[in-house]
Amino acid sequence: MNNIKTTEGQLPDAQGRFGIVAARFNKMVAERLLDGAVGVLRQHGIADENLHIVWVPGAFEIPLAVRQLAAGGSVDAVVALGCIIRGATPHFDYVAGTCSDALGRLQTEYGIPVGFGVLTVEHLEQALERAGSKPGNKGADAALAALEMASLVRQLS
Questions:
Q1: Number of C-alpha atoms within 13 angstroms, CB side, residue 40?
Q2: Residues with Cβ within 8 Å of residue 29, at least 6 apart in sequence
Q3: Looking at residue 85, which CATH number applies to its domain?
Q4: Residue 1 resides in a domain
């Protein structure tokens, strides 16, 4: 394997412009995810003037805002943040499935990384745990993935 070329994203190579699309529905959770994402981007040297935060009504609307950012060419990567809590109806399945499928398609269609920080949980307690308590902050994790993938895309271009 010594002769096989290997490429992977490098966090010390962090640079670029980043969009963050956050859903206001379950805003208490989204704000914590946003804090985690912005904190990681700043920690890796991304200046505030290279961040663009876009708030949308809910998770269903996240893909359209991500598409607009990607199509406009103003960002090198996007971090998608939101929280979908299962209820008593199948609404959860439709919103969660539509959001994740659309974000995956946008990533390949526009060739820009989309860090996936949209929580799909059973109840608010799980959401709060994933937005900054013991298991960490999934907004921060999504931002790290976006940083690494932005680096990888630059290397492969």
A1: 24
A2: 83, 119, 124, 127, 128, 131
A3: 3.40.50.960
A4: no
Tens of pLDDT, residue by residue over 27-85, are 999 999 999 999 999 999 999 999 999 999 999 999 999 999 999 999 999 999 999 99
**Catalytic residues, which ones?**
91
Q: Is residue 105 part of a domain?
A: yes
12 in a structural domain: no
pTM for the full predicted model: 0.93
What token pair was written down for 148?
A: 């690494």
